[in-house]
From TrEMBL:
PANTHER family for the chain: PHOSPHATIDYLINOSITOL-GLYCAN BIOSYNTHESIS CLASS F PROTEIN (PTHR43157:SF31), PHOSPHATIDYLINOSITOL-GLYCAN BIOSYNTHESIS CLASS F PROTEIN-RELATED (PTHR43157)
InterPro entries given in the database record: NAD(P)-bd_dom_sf, SDR_fam
GO molecular function, one term: oxidoreductase activity
The protein's name in its UniProt record: Short-chain dehydrogenase
Keywords in alphabetical order: Oxidoreductase
Amino acid sequence: MAGWTADDMPTMEDRTVVVTGANSGLGYEGTKAFAQKGATVVMACRSVDRGERAASEIRHVDGNADLDVRECDLADLDSVAAFAEGVREDYEAVDVLCNNAGVMAIPRQETADGFEMQLGVNHLGHFALTGRLFPALRASDGEARVVTQSSGAHEMGEMDFSDLQSERDYGKWAAYGQSKLANLLFAYELDRRLDDHGIDDVRSVACHPGYADTDLQFRGPREMGSSLRMAGMKVANALFGQSAAQGALPMLYAATADDVLGGEYVGPDGLLEMRGHPEFQQSNEASRDEGDADRLWAVSAELTGVAYDFETATIQH
């Protein structure tokens, strides 16, 4: 694994990969790397226009890139359902699902379904998407993988089931930390449930990018209208951030490397796990709390209306 780069990825020919947030940052770099290895990449984007511009940029570099831009707004469960239905209709299987898109440290707002935005986009939208694409993942003729992007910020997260939507008390960083902890609880619980049902052809893996210089850091200051915070973030990214291409490596490793097992957590190997090449890591104790994971799963199924049927790999409504 030492020094692993995207060049070390195996061929992805005849493989279908779904990437959320594929038009920018980590999703864009991941999409480009998958496509360069021969995959068909379904680019799940909130904005089709931005997605098409990103696809054009990738095709300019790689004229053979097989890219399919589709609308998927994780802040709207109807959009998630329509996207998943379209993918299931048009593709025989999904081999890799990268739950990558996210928002970070934004002023409190709600999704179309009334969820706190960070929890709604980062966790609940991906919970629903994974469930609705589960039959397509089971249909893979190889080993399918679900890769969920978390963050080192999960360590400052706490699952507050008494105020899950932060209606009584909202702190933008606390809500972000909770959403990233939820990502890990989901990834590990999905792995356990797959194992409990004897499903060994789908693996659930988690990853984090370290500190990557992407647009993610700027949405909060932009929505606050704070030019001072924007300037400060630009300086921080320039000093501490690694490139988005480097930050995407843990996701790519988790999605493709032969030695990845279900329930793994992959991140950068450098100082404070902020930069570097992929390695297996350990997330905090809270992320391994099986009681919280089971409770979060039940709440997520209730809130999204998506119940995974591991017996028949169909969606229950």
